[in-house]
Amino acid sequence: GGSLASIASMPHCAGYASGDDDSQVESIMNKIQATITKRREMFAQQRCANFESYVMNEGNQLPIIALVLDNYAAFREKMYRSEDQLVQLISAARSCGIYLIVTGSSKGAIYYKVTEQISDRIVLNMNDSGSYRDILNVPTPIEPANVKGRALTVLDKKAVEVQFAVPFDCENESARTGSIQRVYDEMSQHS
Question: What is the pTM of this model?
Answer without folding.
Answer: 0.79
